Amino acid sequence: MDLSAYRHLYPFESHWLDIQGHRYHYVDEGAGEPVILVHGNPTWSFFFRGLITELRASYRVIAVDHIGCGCSDKPGDADYAYRLERRVADLDALVEHLHLGDNLTFGVHDWGGMIGLATALRRAQRVKRLVIFNTAAFGLPSGTTLPFWLWIVRNLVPLATPLVRGLNAFSYLATRMACVTRMSSDVSKAYRAPYDSWANRIATLRFVQDIPLGPGDRSYDLMRWVEDHLHRLRDVPMLICWGERDVVFNAAFLAGWRTRFPEAVVHTFPGAGHYVLEDAGEQICQLVHAFLDAHPTDQAAPAPVVVAP
Question: Which helix (H) or strand (E) covers residue 243, if one does?
Answer without folding.
Answer: strand 238-243
